[in-house]
Amino acid sequence: MNRTDTADSPTKKEQEITMPVRNLDKIFHPESVAIIGASHKATSVGHTVMQNMAEAGFTGPVYPVNPRYEKIGDKQCYASLADLPTVPDLAVICTPGATVPNIVRECGDAGIMGLVILSAGFRETGEKGRKLEDELREAAGEYPGLRIIGPNCLGIMSPHSKLNASFGNTTPAPGRVAFISQSGALCTAVLDWALQEHIGFSHFVSLGNTIDVTIGDLIDYFATDDWTESLILYVESITEAREFMSAARAFARNKPIIAYKAGRFTESAEAAASHTGAMAGVDTVYEAAFNRAGIVRISEMTDMFDCAELLARQQTPKGPRLAIVTNAGGPGVMATDALLDRNGVLARLSKESIEKLNAELPAAWSKSNPIDVLGDASPERLAAALKIVLEDPNVDAVLTVFAPQAISQPVAAAEAVIKVAKGSRKPILTSWMGGASMAGAIDMFNRSGIPTYSAPEQAVRAFMYLVSYARTREVLYETPREVPVGFPLNRGKLRGVFDTILSEGHDTLTESTSKALLESYEIPVAKPFVARNMDDAVSLARRVGYPVVLKVLSPDITHKTDVGGVELGLANETEVIESFHRIVNRAKEERPDADVQGVTVQKMVISPVGRELIVGARRDNVFGMVMLVGAGGTAAELFKDRALELPPLNERLARRMLESLKSWPLLDGYRGRPRVNVDRLIESLIRLSYLVADYPEIKELDVNPLLVTPDDVIALDARVILDHNMVLNPPRRFSHLAIRPYPEEYTKRVKLKDGRSVLLRPIKPEDEPMWHDLLASCSKESIWFRFRYLFKKSTHEMATRFCFIDYDREIAIVAEMEDAGERRLVGVCRLVPDADRTNAEYGVLVADALQGQGLGSLLTDYCLEICTNWGIHTIVAETAPQNQRMLSIFAHRGFTLDRNTCDDVVLGRKELVKNPSPTEGSPALLR
Predict the structure, then answer these.
(1) How much is the average pLDDT of 443-467?
(2) Across the strands, what pairs with 508?
């Protein structure tokens, strides 16, 4: 069946990566459940689980397992798993912790693929429990495909499947919000609140000790779940950072994630050795990671409830423009203040809306937003105003604030709002302010699925969190400019030079060596020269030219200014001699333990209009390398004007870091001051991100200050601290990064049939303009063959799906040619593996002008080669029966063709020879 889509965006299948997480259906949508440790005892976990399963209305067989009972309630009880009439999909283990490893083996032997372990007594209890958990992990590892939630968890609930495999105190109603928590106690509090507020959930998960199923697994699973439209996380710590980041970025592409991170002020266990380390604390790194993933972070538990209410009951607002309809001026002003304080937008009503409101409201109404319908407003007047405002194209959402008045009718007013809300697709929030007199109206809103808040500020906060999600997503997928960052030096040869430095055994590189490393990545430096004695200092000063800077030379002194180890602007030989003695003597007095080797001499760089920044990177225990930029100099840690980001960087991410600084106006030309060379600064940040990506041995890197002028940037001081454990035990490539960098290893040149050269390389966000041009050059037939639907034109929203990809999860190879000195894309192929990295979907598009030149075959062969290297077992593709070129390509490469799936689709499938040793480019190895 052919069809034509007039929508600008792709179908849901094209928008999302299908990433089914193996066997999690056995846990969240089981057809049968065994409860191991089921009991008659009312206070036992096994009894509570049995009761919850019954009250939730689970329709499949439930098998109690306990050798001490013949029946539990009206159900036959089985002595062991071997006695069960069928193999259940899910087993819920409620027995003492010491028994669990053997029970897991029994479940594995029986063929049960889903486990929820409620039992406690593992690592949370100390060393003995830690050993027991290791034994449990070892037992689970004997059964590939076995998935486990827990141990030491409250359990899971899937209300749409009528499943409550937990010992929680209630079952929530079915809803659209998934909730994942690392705290079982918090789960019970949220459940109590949800019952009171009539809030529903699609899934409700207590993770426990997370020996198998991680937060990342669940985010992936819920991304493909039809019932889940948003996600709330309660996070105490992240263990699998790359998995978490990939999953969250994929989910947040289309659905909002709200997260509360506990332990905001936990101090790092290791004292920071540099300015960068001191400024990049644990919590700020989580903040940076959440921002990069598109997660909206909330700071208070009340915000979690408020956001849950809005997510559960309304669509995500299309934009930040809020209209406020109220029967009292004061609360309207309160709501406006809260909105503007959070950088929200007070909607500007259209002329047509003003005219309609003039016709409906008394002459004394406010004539603008907030819309004050006055204290004597009847429910009908309130409803009329609300309907007009909702129809205004300048309004994205409406907050209705109702305050008790002498003649007010709160319940009738609520009924009027509910009636209007049924006919609108825009979010409507309510705040019926007051006490007992408002209880009936509030209950009515809760039962009708309209979010309601006790104070307007609460409503505004919840609204702005969702607006923040939209803003963050927009920034993340803003097309970066192409920055000409190239490395003419042989990076492999440079690696060899660096290995020689590593073998010297020093944890801290000297300023000279640190700057040499920066310079090799074409980051400009003020070159230091080593002076072991006074005569060397004088000679070098004369050679570089006055004025000069002298700095103490010692591998043991990180903060040179703390020991009086820096002197600036030395103008002659006498000043250099005196300075040398002062620096060396002070350093020895302040740090008698330090190895003071002399000083370094460098040219004094003077710029009256330049700004000093700190730029650096450090390795976080969770998220790996983290980059920092901020106001620099000796007061860097005092002012804490900083921005953090996870490498790798592109132009847009680097620019966002700079624009988020409080000192950004000073860089951008504040009050007529010259604007610094922002483009050169951005390029330097990108180069630094390449440096820390290439060298996992770098533990901390500190450039402070980095002088930025209207013409250039220059590193005035630098220090690199190494981790020699990484030297002795080299890690997997890029395992020190939470986000996989651009896979340059998949770049190569090929020739077409007519001899023209084509560059094959992975796609990148900067390719978006050329990607649009490629699609525009294709006929409707070519577009139909590739996408299986037609669209008016390609959009940025489409491009975010196809150009902004996670190289840990998928890859798209573009074919690039030069024409009259201009680069253009002439083809693209795309591989999307499943979560197990066993199967991959494949698609290819070739520009009409290049068809018949063998480019489709070249792209297909390259994708097959990549799949073999990745260890993919099966590659599948769809095309139309009329696409003879593609069918020929399939036939010549041994694809089996299935023409019976659908009249207008041919499904091609090819089994690949598994590569016994996948390359480092394999996503499976990058996890």
Answers:
(1) 88
(2) 721
Q: Which of 706, 740, 774 finishes a domain?
A: 740
Beta carbons within 8 Å of 212's beta carbon, 6+ residues apart: 140, 146, 147, 148, 149
Q: How far is residue 204's CA from residue 172's CA, in Å, rounded to a whole number?
A: 9
3-state secondary structure of 195: helix
User: In this structure, are residues 568 and 519 in contact, taking their beta carbons and an 8 Å threshold?
Assistant: no
Give this prediction's pTM: 0.85
**Whether residue 352 sits in one domain with residue 247:** no
DSSP 737: B
Which tokens in the block code for residue 633?
């100099």
Q: Alpha-carbon torsion 693, 697, 700, 704, what sign?
A: negative
Nearest alpha carbon to residue 708 among 630, 643, 612: 612
Give residue 523's pLDDT band: very low, low, confident or very high (50, 70, 90): very high
Question: Nearest CA to 463 among 397, 411, 368, 395?
Answer: 397
Any idea what the CATH number is for the domain that residue 94 is in? Answer: 3.40.50.720
**pLDDT for position 14:** 38
Query: How many other C-beta atoms lie within 10 A of the C-beta of residue 527?
Result: 17
* Contact assessment for residue 85 and residue 34, using Cβ atoms and an 8 Å cutoff: no
The total of other beta-carbon atoms located within 10 Å of residue 117's CB is: 29
What residues contact residue 488 under an 8 Å CB cut-off, 6+ apart? none
Side chain identity, residue 189: A
CA angle 515, 516, 517 (to 5 degrees): 90
Look up the domain containing 44 and give its range.
31-152
- 15 domain-assigned: no
One domain, residues 400 and 534: no
How far apart are the C-alpha atoms of 682 and 685, rounded to whole Å? 5
The conformational region for residue 270 under phi > 0 = left, psi -120 to 50 = alpha, else beta, is beta
Is residue 261 a contact partner of residue 221, using CB atoms and an 8 Å limit?
A: no
Residue 9 domain flag: no
Cis peptide before 151 (omega within 30 of 0): yes
The sign of the CA dihedral 628, 632, 633, 636 is negative
Helix or strand run (H / E) with residue 825: strand 822-833
pLDDT tens across 652-708, in order? 999 999 999 988 998 888 877 889 999 999 999 999 999 999 889 899 999 988 999
Between CA 480 and CA 470 the distance in angstroms is 18
Q: With pLDDT > 90 as the criterion, what percentage of the chain qualifies?
A: 54
CATH code for the domain of 243: 3.40.50.261
pLDDT in tens, 915-927: 544 444 444 433 3
Q: Decide if 444 is inside a domain.
A: yes
